[in-house]
Amino acid sequence: MSAAPQNTSTAAREQTARIARLNDLARSAMGVACTAVATVGFRSLPEADQSCVRELIETFDAFDEDNDPHGERDFGTIYQLEDGSWTTDRPRVRDDERERVFWKLDYYDRQMEFASDDAADPAITRRVLTIMLSDEY
User: Fold this and answer.
1) What is this structure's pTM?
2) Less crowded by CB within 10 Å, the N or C end of the chain?
3) pLDDT over 50 at 1, yes or no
4) Are 53 and 101 in contact (CB under 8 A)?
5) Signed CA dihedral, 45, 43, 59, 18: sign only
């Protein structure tokens, strides 16, 4: 009797791991492995800041239980410190932040009309990575 739940659990873990790998690929190859979009607020940042944030998203690995409770690596936060530098490390004090940028991945069907039936299957799923200021979320 315990074999079926274990197999289901194993299958679910494998599906989550596959989604996470596909999301890693989408982030590292924005515009190729996914469609990348940015909000008006993010696009209002200076070009150098936008570029720095995109680089940090591409290499983002600061996942924890707070920002990745399902293990899919589909959401993250980039922080701009008071000195103007950007980091994936959360400042200890909110006053040390100048800006906060969120990025998130969503999964659509191939026609981009509905949610994907299976985010682990790239044959039927298109990923959209959205970059936004935290107050636009």
Assistant:
1) 0.90
2) N
3) no
4) yes
5) positive
